[in-house]
Fold:
Amino acid sequence: MAEDNKKVLVADEIAYEGIKRLEEHCHVDVQTSIVASELLKIINDYSGLIVRSRTVVTEDVLKAGTDLEVIGRCGVGVDNIDLVSCKKRGVKVVNCPTSLKIAVAELTFGLLLGLARKVTFCDREMKSGNWPKKQYVGNELNGKILGLIALGRIGAEVARIANAFGMSVIAYDPYVDNHKINNNNIMMVDLDVVFSDSDYLSVHAPLNEETKHLISHESFDKMKDGVKIVCAARGGIINEDALLNALELGKVSGAALDVFEIEPPVNDKLINNANVIATPHIGAQTKDAQIRAGVDIAEEVVAVLTDKKIRWRVV
Structure:
């Protein structure tokens, strides 16, 4: 039965199964198209708030939410939440980092395969009535070096899959622990070595002050000619102008992007480049992952509101 004094606002879409789990313990309002001005007016009525990437939790929202105890981020990244203000005001922030790792890792590897075998190029040519067999020469992943930037849960899952394909995996992550290295046959190296040695480069870092435009004009200068790049992490880690320049010069032979600095993206020249695969931030968009994420974040929010053990506290 819902506890009348505990109200949760779901400001972005989560799976029905998550809503039902919340309703077992709290009064739940679902307003998935709410805008910032409306949120400011009503947030003081709620003990909990659940968001995805659409809703931005600013200091003003936190000031208005005088009864807020917890903010649940249905996903991994929390760059849309003012964590400093949350900590200052004693508002807990929880997420669900394990729920989406399989979906994002599988998409990452699908994009790697798409680049290696020029799947989208062949598809476009076939649908235009052409038979591009003689124009087509792809690459095998077996024996190639995959460089990973960041080795969290998703990066480690990508490494596991890469091992099965016979790839050698190198990674840069200053925060990694030895357990992940030993279990995934990964060689930890400096960032410059990831840039210089990778045949394929996959980005799995969060977006923050350290990682903003981490991959820049200077980074591309250090890379192998013909390197291929995948990013299903966060837009803004790769400088998109620098990437476009590297593609046009042939330094980068292919890029697959699921995330962009501005979403929907406005960099039409990048999106329309013949050697770019672009997808609309679908890394977590599987039925399986959405159900897991919805249930997991609901359980975390309920745990905070009922003083139970929390699995994934951010602040």
